[in-house]
Amino acid sequence: MIPLSTLLFIGGTEIVFILFIVVLVFGADKLPEVARGLGKGMRTLKDATNDIKNEVTKSAKESNIIDPDTAKEFQQEINKIKDDVEDFSGSIKRNL
Fold first, then answer.
1. Can you spell out the DSSP letters for 19-74?
2. Residue 44 shares a structural domain with residue 2
3. Whole-angstrom Cα distance, residue 92 to residue 83?
4. What pLDDT, on the 0 to 100 scale, is given for residue 96?
5. Domain check: are 3 and 47 in the same one?
6. Domain span including residue 73
7. Burial of 57 (0-12, 13-18, 19+ CB in 10 A)
8. Given this model, what pLDDT does residue 51 score?
9. Computed over its alpha carbons, how large is the radius of gyration of the chain?
10. Residue segments in the chain with a per-residue pLDDT below the cut of 50
11. 71 and 58 in one domain?
């Protein structure tokens, strides 16, 4: 998991500086409105992405392109490989 201090490879000082610039540009009284607008925009984008994903999945199932059982088998195999990699990387981290 990525620590919060390295969010997007930006350190704490850079985040404080960016917040300072945002306060200067928009003003402290406008920040809640700006944040609310960004939140609504991100939610709309997430909903649109989920709708597109559901439509593609639905079309694929109707066209018999995707077999749900095969997809579950692939997911199980991916999870096994992921667990193996995490176990391996954990042992390497402990040895360092």
1. HHHHHHHH-TTTHHHHHHHHHHHHHHHHHHHHHHHHHHHHHHHHTT-S-HHHHHHH
2. yes
3. 14
4. 52
5. yes
6. 67-96
7. middle
8. 93
9. 22
10. 1, 5
11. no
Say if residue 29 is in the same domain as residue 45.
Answer: yes
CA distances from 83 to 17, 53, 78, 80, 93 (A): 39, 26, 9, 5, 15
Instruction: List the structure tokens of 94.
Output: 């402990």
Dmax (CA) of the chain: 55
* Residue 23: both structure tokens together: 């306060």
Does the global pTM surpass 0.70? no
7 and 53, same domain (yes or no): yes
**Is 55 in the same domain as 77?**
no
Residue partners of 57: CB distance under 8 A and separation at least 6: 66
**CA pair distance 58, 84, nearest whole angstrom:** 32
End-to-end CA distance of the chain: 18
